[in-house]
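User: Please check token order:
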Amino acid sequence: MDKPKAMREENTLASALTPRQIVEELDKYIVGQFEAKRCVAIALRNRARRQMLAEDMQDEVSPKNIIMIGSTGVGKTEIARRLARLVEAPFIKVEASKYTEIGYVGRDVESMIRDLTETAISRVKAEQTEAVEEKARESTEERLLDCIFPVPRSLQRQPRLQDEDALEEPEEEDDDGVLQLPFDMNLDVGIEVEEAREKERERYLKTREKFRDWLREGRLEDKPVEINVKHQNMPFVEIFSPGGIEEMDINFKDMFSNILPNQTKKRRVPVSEARTILMQEESEKLIDMDAVISEAIQRVEDSGIVFLDEIDKIAGRESRHGPDISREGVQRDILPIIEGSTVTSKYGAVRTHHILFIAAGAFHVSSPSDLIPELQGRFPIRVELKSLNKDDFKSILTEPKNALVKQYVALLSTEGIEASIADDAIDEIAALAFQVNESVEDIGARRLHTIMEKLFENLFFDAPNLEKKHITIDAAYVQAELSQIVKDQDLSRYIL
């Protein structure tokens, strides 16, 4: 192994978060579920460890895919989403129930990899745009100045006769014997013209710099300017394909952009809007899209994460009755992608051998053993998430970063109202959420959203007109607003 590569791999592992650090970061946003956090932290760390191995062994080490088992609202999706955001990995959440077996009308399972690639390209392009932001801003500023204070015609370059062309003209014979002077009589006139042009150029540049200062100070934001914007009329194409347009693998936008020439259209917009339009155009010129695509595909292959939700909905067997005849077929279509295959996209081939798949489902009716054996073997790690109790609800309300209580207090503060929620009110909200989950249906932490929204409904409605700017919400207020709804189970079924 060459030294630069060894140093790069060592830096990869050194810069990666340890499993304990990953769990600590997830704890800032997700309450409890230590086992699930531990599993995803180990899987993420193993990716960095794989980079330390020899190349022949790297291909052999496959990601340890995970199945999360738990009812809705316990944190399955949030764990996967926060994990991807933590390491800035390409991430996509898909529902397994929206895919159909080959031969049925519906979405192709390979579209999840194409969507993941699109997500990665958008992320890399945004990073490249940020990297060239300074150069793009300078170019945008020059173009804005050209629109606000264009170069006068007198300073624009005029076509001048070349000396070679002048020498090619035939010389007339001097029949009258007039003495030809060895210098140009118009020399003084030319010098005066050049001096005048130079003075005008200096005045122009001085005025242009003054406009530049005004532009940077924001004094010209509302000034209307006329800019040329690229415009292309894309023809409407309707395609009837039973397998979906993704199977055709045709990028009609790129195809027609190569056929139809780009046209420019003049638009009269304020400077503030013109800056945004021109900034985007200048950034596009500076970004190397080939490099963006190459980097994005590499990120997808090495660090992509696919969260496959509702996998329990396709866990049926063929022997079952009802409208589920394609369930096992969907599993067999997903299997090659999870075990490692090459998916063709409009950006090129994408290998799925080292993409991490995290599946999740409630498994109330079915169980993971109802999946086909081949698919079960591709998810070696299974972790069961616990249902939330009253103490968990209290922690969710207050502990995470930007917790629910903090969000609602901040929303009221925008109206100039200072709200404080007492501890006994938090206890009462948690108790009511747990009670409704037990009596109606367990939807986990999402129950807190419905209860908090109902609790603050009157305050949000009357907030602009309230004279009292300091409000304290205690247990009595919570009971007055929600107790009647909680007691009436028929009513709470539809409201909470």
